[in-house]
């Protein structure tokens, strides 16, 4: 009997992860129970100006992921569907928080599945992370607020250093 719903399956969890939050980490931990391999893919969102470079975001994620054979961290400059096509992936994992996320995620799902044959699996956020976003984390950190309940401990210092540089106009 199969103990995993999508045995031998690979999924990609795409996002800007600028930076990764505890909300993202929760989706990752839940998604790896369904898939054999989860690729966390750092991409650029055309609508957002990132604070961290794509390489920095990738490194931050790696610092949060314990040695887990099922997780791969990768980055890509281009369309998500092109990456998916290249790798032969059949599943996209996304997290959904408030209803406001739904419209945007639904649109992305429709566009992606129009371009290639791919399914999107949505994970509803846990209650405690419903308010949480990378943008909020950056805003709180910029003004010196405490973000320790919102991001993994292992990257807290990196974010604070980056914010310090930003405030001093060095970044
Ligand atoms: O964490 P985000 O910002 O909500 O993630 C959005 C992301 C990066 C997954 C989306 O913008 C994306 O897929 N960007 C790559 C370029 C692309 O494929 N754009 C078309 C999306 S339908």
Helix and strand string, N-terminal first?
EHEHEHEHEHH
Structural class: alpha/beta
Strand content: 15-25%
Overall pLDDT metric:
93
Bound molecules: 4'-phosphopantetheine
Based on the structure given, which CATH architecture is correct?
3-Layer(aba) Sandwich
Strand arrangement across the biggest beta sheet = 3-2-1-4-5
CATH fold descriptor: Rossmann fold
Number of beta strands: 5
CATH structural class: Alpha Beta
Could you name the CATH homologous superfamily? HUPs
Measured distance between first and last alpha carbons: 53 Å
The outline comes out as globular
Task: Itemize the secondary structure elements and their pairings.
Layout (H helix, E strand, L loop, with lengths): L5 E10 L6 H10 L3 E8 L11 H11 L6 E5 L4 H8 L3 E6 L2 H17 L3 E6 L9 H9 L10 H15 L4
Parallel strand pairs: 1-2, 1-4, 2-3, 4-5
Helix pairs in contact: 2-6
4'-phosphopantetheine binds next to strand 1 and helix 4.
């Amino acid at each position: 009997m199969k103990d995993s719903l999508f045995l031998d399956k690979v999924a990609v969890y795409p996002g800007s992860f600028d930076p990764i939050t505890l909300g993202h980490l929760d989706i990752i931990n839940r998604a790896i129970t369904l898939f054999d391999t989860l690729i966390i893919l750092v991409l650029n969102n055309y609508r957002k100006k990132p604070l961290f470079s794509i390489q920095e975001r990738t490194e931050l994620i790696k610092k949060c992921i314990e040695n887990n054979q099922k997780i791969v961290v990768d980055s890509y400059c281009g369309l998500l569907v092109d990456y998916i096509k290249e790798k032969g992936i059949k599943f996209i994992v996304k997290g959904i928080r408030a209803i406001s996320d739904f419209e945007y995620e639904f649109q992305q799902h429709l566009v992606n599945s129009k371009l290639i044959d791919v399914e999107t699996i949505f994970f509803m956020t846990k209650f405690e992370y419903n308010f949480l976003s990378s943008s909020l984390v950056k805003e709180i950190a910029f003004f010196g607020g405490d973000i320790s309940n919102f991001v993994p401990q292992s990257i807290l210092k990196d974010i604070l250093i980056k914010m310090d540089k930003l405030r001093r106009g060095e970044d």
